[in-house]
Amino acid sequence: MKVAISGATGIVGSHVRRLAQARGHEVVSLTRSTGHDLTKGLSAQTLAGVETIIDVSGIQTLSRRKATEYFLAVSRTLQSAGAAAGVSHLVALSIVGIDGVTSSYYGAKGEQERAVRAGVLPWTLLRAAQFHEFAVQTVERGSMGPLVVAPRARVRPIAAAEVAEALVDLAEAGPAGDAPDLVGPRDEILADMVRTLLSRRGSRRPVVEIPLPGSMGAAMSSGRLRGSPDASQGRQTYAEWVDQLPRSR
Ligand SMILES: NC(=O)c1ccc[n+]([C@@H]2O[C@H](COP(=O)([O-])OP(=O)(O)OC[C@H]3O[C@@H](n4cnc5c(N)ncnc54)[C@H](OP(=O)(O)O)[C@@H]3O)[C@@H](O)[C@H]2O)c1
């Protein structure tokens, strides 16, 4: 089938693209680097022949306003261009445990979920836990001089490659509404994940754990992001994922 992937160059999107191609699907990549800024619109022509859109685009900000504007604009674009082009399925990716979180990035993900559920395109929504790669993103976003600042968070991280596998499976299966939550095999503390990653890189940078404010910070530190006991579980542990990274000294 022909699949459009918004965010096809991102952490999870790169895996989705590779896997979809490996399974014989024709892929249209929708990112700014491939010439499509989805906050500004998209021609139905670009989606000609596309059956399914997998939306794994994202923005890196903690501002609820900015993130909401972004996710709602992208949703509007995909819904209207998708409907005009006859797309029959939208698969979107959200985050486990964000119910009731009204602040910051997770508040915006809630808005995105509502837009998916209320949209004209038949949909499937997968909520996944934080990726193992979230430790890398935390180092990139939380660097303050020599320090790395990590939000206090109890998580059950999962390999982005396994989330991608679930997304392609869901795309192939057809619209299903809310899919079961997908989490990793073990509980972790985000600051410890960052320390393990830095050590693998041969870095001794100090990691400082801080509680984030608001309902997003409370959700992160409470352990709610680890999902419910009936969530589907990934296979690869964080330690196994780190072990396959190149070691530097
Ligand atoms: N990271 C996690 O731990 C995690 C966990 C669960 C769910 N999620 C969700 O998964 C999704 C992807 O996360 P990620 O960490 O893989 O993201 P990422 O690595 O930051 O990638 C974001 C992707 O979106 C594209 N993009 C950004 N702005 C765009 C625009 N205006 N128009 C078109 N494309 C745009 C980027 O490409 P260009 O820059 O070239 O445009 C890139 O391909 C997000 O919705 C996130 O909430 C993430």
Q: What string, H for helix and E for strand, traces the elements in order?
A: EHEEHEHEHEEEHEEEHEHEH
Biggest sheet, open or closed, and with what strands and sense? 6 strands, parallel
Q: How would the global form be characterised? A: globular
Number of helices in the DSSP assignment: 8
Q: Give the strand order of the largest sheet, numbering strands 1, 2, ... along the chain.
A: 2-1-3-4-5-9
Structural class: alpha/beta
CATH architecture level-2 label:
3-Layer(aba) Sandwich
- The level of helicity is 25-40%
Q: Unreliable stretches, pLDDT < 50, 5 or more residues?
A: none
User: What Rg, in angstroms, do the CA atoms define?
Assistant: 18 Å
Q: How many angstroms does the end-to-end distance come to?
A: 45 Å
Query: Would you identify the CATH H-level superfamily?
Result: NAD(P)-binding Rossmann-like Domain
CATH topology value? Rossmann fold
Overall number of structural domains = 1
